[in-house]
Amino acid sequence: MAFRSRPGPLGTSCLTCKRRHKKCDLRQPVCKRCEVGRFKCEGYGHNKRQEARNPQPDGSRPPGAFEHDGPSHSTFSESGLNRITMGTSLISREQPEDTTNSSPPESFTPLDFNDGRGNSAPLGHDNISAFVNKQGSRVEDYLRLLITRSTSDASTNPMSIIRKIINLQAQSPYSPIDPMKTFFSYPWFVDYILERSDTYMDQWYFRPVNFPRKRSREDVVSRLRTSPISRWVSLVAMSIFEASFVGDISQHSLHNTWIGYIEGCLMRELSRDLTPYNIQERRKNWIHVAVLKTMIDHTSNTYQVLRNMTPIFLQSVFSEPKFWSKDCDPTYIPLSNILGSESPEISYFALIDCTYAMATGLPQQVEYDTTAYALPIIPPTQPNAAASHQWSLSSPSVFQLVLADINACRDKSPAARDWKDIEKQLLTWQSQPAEYEFTKPWMKLAWYAVQESWRLALLVYLYMAVCGASSDDLRIQPYVDQILQVVGTIKKRDSSDVKLSLFVQYLMVGICARSETHRKIARDKLSAPNESRLWLLRVSDFVPVLDHLWYGAAAAGRSVYWTDYMRSREAMLPIES
């Protein structure tokens, strides 16, 4: 709606009070009179005397787009920032603040933004400029103190930080700066994300000597410093990781809300005329968001997430020359090059695709080339951030290639390898002791045990899903016993909170388990939040599938076939394909 310019002094009231012919108390962004009367405050944007923030929108609308960002320029669009800021206010409506974790009185003292003035008494125009400048300085000081203490205090998580900022917005009626925008724009926010990311890396079971901290990676630091949406995705990712790590599923609805807002932003951004660099960054962000979604969403929805994201995944892979060796077949995706890259979003998506196909019996979304192409040789003394999935998810690259091969063979893909070739590869495989150097000697033995458990589990999967063997086959039962023996040799790390991700192993044990002892082990490992928190899928959703199998086709220790497991999966975990 356009307003005509009329002679005389410009107004100061909010648009709602002006139309109602009421005296406005001038509180921003929402005046108190509108708030008390439950009227929608339409803000001060029609006044041109001073810059005022737009009224906060409904909150049900998705966030607006981000401005172009890249190596040299990056800002939020005004509407996009306001909508995202309002989106986070859902926290205060859906979840009460955990005062024991986020607002200790000795850490943060609430700011008095009234400065001795009641909200009902409007400030004189001569004093507003000095007052709002003082308010802005105090907001910045508070945010700086908040992030500094949050970085050093492990108990302060991203969720509590956002709650504090929302409370700050409610307390700062005359602040000339937006606390959320300031929080995202300051260098110390990047420091916070890097610090939390490195702390998360400390929870990995394996630590190669030359795997760099994120703080030392120029590409990661540059991406965070130049891209607002990357910072937002990183904050949500940290919140999801930390909630998952402590087994807290109560925040998943909020995380899904944030993810929905970010997806809306990315969809609009990719419809704009962006530079190739920014297009690729948006694609990676969107794939990252999809990976986060599979961690918290019900497994029955993961197929749709993967299918919707596959075009973005393919566009991203085909836009990266580093994935394509000269011998690569362009009609298939070179899985070994993806897994060996420094692009965790791309490799994690491929891992989820292959693992989900194995566990559900559905086809993979992508046809992979599983040739093990030669990777650049990097000296042990040189930092190497490639293949992070091996250390964060305990998933050796060599066996991810075999998993994709078995899936293709099971589904009778035209390019599938012969099952006997796959069997021979698994039976003759030998570990390479000098392949990796770890920070502690015992990690080398643990890594070999993880590899061996993968080898045994994939042999079981091959015999049952491809060869049609029953669970009491003379080849299978010894492997089930050996899987549990090998996994049992892996010692706990110094911190008892560190867990291994062995979903495929325990699923194979559960399918073939004939004794209650083995079934209890599989159920406990897959259902316990403190066991499954580092996995990319909600593996606890497969426990009802195993229960259905055990008390149905496998009752009284009877042997089963892969088709029996598929019937239980379809009954307890139906998926619309």
UniProtKB/TrEMBL annotation:
Q: Per the record, where are the segments of Polar residues compositional bias? A: 72-106
User: Which compartments is it annotated to reside in?
Assistant: Nucleus
Which spans are transmembrane here? none
Main site of residence?
Answer: nucleus
Q: Which InterPro entries match?
A: Fun_TF, Zn2-C6_fun-type_DNA-bd_sf, Zn2Cys6_DnaBD
MF annotations from Gene Ontology: DNA-binding transcription factor activity, RNA polymerase II-specific; zinc ion binding
Q: What is this protein called?
A: Zn(2)-C6 fungal-type domain-containing protein
Q: Which organism is it from?
A: Rhizoctonia solani
